[in-house]
Predict the structure.
Amino acid sequence: MQRTITSLNEYEKLYEDYVIRNRVRGYSNFFINKSNLPEYIALGKVKYEITDGSLFIIVDEGCFYKLYFCGLTHNVTKLPIMDKVVCCDIYEQQERDVHIKFIHDLLSKNGFSCQQKYEQVRLFYGLLHKASAGYLNKNKKKLSEFFITVNSFSVNDKDVVEDMIEKNMGKYNKLSIEDDVWVEQIKNNNIIGLFNCGNLIALYYYTPKASRIIVDKRYRGKNLSVLLRMYFASQKRWQCSTKNHYDWAEADNLPSKRTFEKLLAIYTGKVKYRYIANS
């Protein structure tokens, strides 16, 4: 039976009992950003269910639920029953990992179908920083020819960014409980956009583990996604950085893969599968 989590303390107790203690038991896809929890809990958007010793967290993202689990084993045969569309991501450290084949089977037997496959890439902004000045200088003409300007966003622009992401990447890639807090993203200058005569035509939403880059269909094929990343890489914070940063490339999206090649990205071998179930 599903129950609504009513406080952060209640969530932390569940996390302690089922995530921390069961870290080596079973499989987990637990990637909730704790900083977003108070808002989601206050709105009654976080529920849980315990089945055969496994914890399921169900997060209401508006037009769909996002399903998370911890300690999933072969003993589990049924998944929580939902009253609307459900999205569930599972991760393999390497493609066709036989150790978690049972999860693919479990999802399929419970009405889920795999909608998309993503491959993880690793980027080095410290390396890109060194090349960014020359690249941007070479592309100044392109910006002026198309009347394109680069700007950051304000706290009040969240709806604009979310609308751009959802229209171009689909509702399952919208900003969610997994993302960094919006105010912090703005403060850290982690979101930049390209504008044509004041109209948003492309944006880059940075996080260390799963960024989003979107280019309006009318402006694709002009390497604007590379330009955005190079502009981002030109920031002083990357000057001496040795950190790794990660992204997901759609396995069947060749333009996206070509972009990552230009950015000297390396494929890690990790794969994400997105499963969807209709109510």
Q: What stands out?
A: DSSP finds nine helices and twelve strands in the chain. The first helix runs from residue 8 to 20. Residues 202 and 215 are 4 Å apart (CA to CA). The first strand starts at residue 3 and ends at 4.
